[in-house]
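Input structure tokens:
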């Protein structure tokens, strides 16, 4: 007897789920990042393992590789710590594997000295948004929010906070508000207000390295406003990882003990430390150039969006205070993400290399980073890339409307 079953249901292709589409787009974005002929930044996180290991080929330019390897924080680690203390003008510094650990240690040490575990901070600060409540869950600290608005806290808010606090933590720049920095006058007023409350001041300075252009002052003068400072070696300097806590020698001595207790006294750390030294040698002197060019890029983006006839677009802040900033567009995240990937695939130019995230119904934002690769871009190059992106954006919007 003949088989009369209809096999079309078994062979018809299935429509990918939204999650599957997003996973595929992520893979396409990563492939486009690696193959792009032009991009505003070639961040280490976008590179292959081979490319990252190649960074250490320059290690002998910044350190004597015939010296003994480090052991539990000695050797090259101590040399990096001395270098950082010198750059920031502090008595001492301690290397940490992560900034999360460094800041918990710093603030619990200060809490022991002040007798008050309350830490006044911004609601958008990194520990509040990205560290799973580590201050309270791990270190016995009690975060107290000064504000959660997308701006810096004011001196009045510090003075008028309705409960005592032992430390004021300021994130400079405040990443999740658009890499914002206060004016120098505003910063000194906020610090003075904390002193009036008998509180110590700690700078979450993961990206403090890049603030000198905006403040118009050297690193040591900026760091001198605070009682302690944390800096990162990979966010601006493109090292493998790692951070440093800098401040008075007595604080750093205690911090080293807590670093051991937290599991941060690693057996050997020379690859990470050498990458930090390379970053200080290569990237630190170039950061002011990146910041100035980011302002050129931001202005060209605004002009490009206007020229492309997009209904509403925002570059935030309008004039970047660092070499990183945000772009906001009034479209669904999946739409702009697809358009950005298509433009990169078609042109070999990666204008928006990072992910897009929602900021409300029908609003998406991404972060733009300007590094050495971005210095090759003129304002006209940026506007041309915006036009290419806008054309793909129109295609994707039309396709979405047909479905």
């Amino acid at each position: 007897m003949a088989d009369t079953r209809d096999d079309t249901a078994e062979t018809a292709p299935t429509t990918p789920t939204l999650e599957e589409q997003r996973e595929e787009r992520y893979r396409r974005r990563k492939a486009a990042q690696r193959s792009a002929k032009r991009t505003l930044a070639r961040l280490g996180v976008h590179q292959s393992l081979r490319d990252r290991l190649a960074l250490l080929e320059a290690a002998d330019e910044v350190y004597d590789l015939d010296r003994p390897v480090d052991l539990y924080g000695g050797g090259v680690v101590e040399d990096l710590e001395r270098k950082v203390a010198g750059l920031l003008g502090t008595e001492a510094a301690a290397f940490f594997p992560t900034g999360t650990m460094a800041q918990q240690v710093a603030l619990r040490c200060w809490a022991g000295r002040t007798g008050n575990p309350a830490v006044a901070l911004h609601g958008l600060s990194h520990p509040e948004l990205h560290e799973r409540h580590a201050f309270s869950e791990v270190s016995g600290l009690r975060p107290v929010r000064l504000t959660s608005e997308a701006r810096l806290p004011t001196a009045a808010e510090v003075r008028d906070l309705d409960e005592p606090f032992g430390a004021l933590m300021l994130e400079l720049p405040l990443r999740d508000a658009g890499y914002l920095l206060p004016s120098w006058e505003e910063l000194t007023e906020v610090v003075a207000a904390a002193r009036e409350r008998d509180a110590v001041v700690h700078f979450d300075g993961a990206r403090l390295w890049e603030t000198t252009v905006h403040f118009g002052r050297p690193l040591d003068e900026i760091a001198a406003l605070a009682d302690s400072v944390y800096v990162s070696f990979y966010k601006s300097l493109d090292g493998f990882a790692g951070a440093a806590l800098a401040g008075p020698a007595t604080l750093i001595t205690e911090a080293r003990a807590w670093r051991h207790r937290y599991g941060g006294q690693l057996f050997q750390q020379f690859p990470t430390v050498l990458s930090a030294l390379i970053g200080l040698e290569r990237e630190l002197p170039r950061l002011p150039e990146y910041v100035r060019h980011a302002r050129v890029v931001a202005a060209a983006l605004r002009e490009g969006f206007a020229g492309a006839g997009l209904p509403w677009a925002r570059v935030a802040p309008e004039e970047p205070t660092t070499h990183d900033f945000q772009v906001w567009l009034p479209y669904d995240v999946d739409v702009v993400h697809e358009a950005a990937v298509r433009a990169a695939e078609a042109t070999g130019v990666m204008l928006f290399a990072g992910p897009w995230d929602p900021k409300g119904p029908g609003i998406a934002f991404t972060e733009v980073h300007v590094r050495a690769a971005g210095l090759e871009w003129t304002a006209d190059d940026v506007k041309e890339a915006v036009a290419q992106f806008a054309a793909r954006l129109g295609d994707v919007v039309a396709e979405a409307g047909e479905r």
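The CA atoms of residues 203 and 229 lie 5 Å apart. The chain has a mean pLDDT of 95.
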